[in-house]
């Protein structure tokens, strides 16, 4: 099941949840402020990133800016504990699909389509192969 890490005041989070509901794709919502963020969840998210903490940590966060926090100098364990204590540093929303090893941070109308199940995506794609469907369906 897809997990979406959100905060209540986040407009992008509302867009993402609406998109998943409109697509009839089940998801589990995790409020980063009220639901405990477990160390193994955060480690899993970090492992799926392309650029590590850069992908999930907001350098514009008040805690990072005012606290003069250097996330690059932290060990993975220190980073995970820092996030657990300060969940507001996370970019939002964060969508995680463990079954298909997918991660997306933020709402992007084009990129979010990766979460549409493959079978449904294939049904909506045009047919370019001669033997895959009848002539009426070819584009």
Briefly say what this structure is.
This protein is α+β, with helices and mostly antiparallel strands and 139 residues long.
CATH class: Alpha Beta
CATH-derived architecture = 3-Layer(aba) Sandwich
Shape: globular
Mean pLDDT: 88
Largest sheet data: 4 strands, mixed
CATH superfamily descriptor: Glutaredoxin
What can you see in these coordinates?
- The protein is an alpha+beta fold and 139 residues long.
- The protein has one domain (2-137): Glutaredoxin, CATH 3.40.30.10.
- It is built from six helices and four strands.
- The protein has helices spanning 11-22, 39-48, 53-56, 62-67, 76-85, 118-124; strands at residues 2-6, 27-31, 94-97, 102-105.
- A four-stranded mixed β-sheet has the order 2-1-3-4, covered by helices on one side.
- The radius of gyration is 18 Å and the shape is globular.
- The two termini are 34 Å apart.
- The mean pLDDT is 88.
Per-chain topology:
Blueprint lengths: L1 E5 L4 H12 L4 E5 L7 H10 L4 H4 L5 H6 L8 H10 L8 E4 L4 E4 L12 H7 L15
Parallel strand pairs: 1-2
Antiparallel strand pairs: 1-3, 3-4
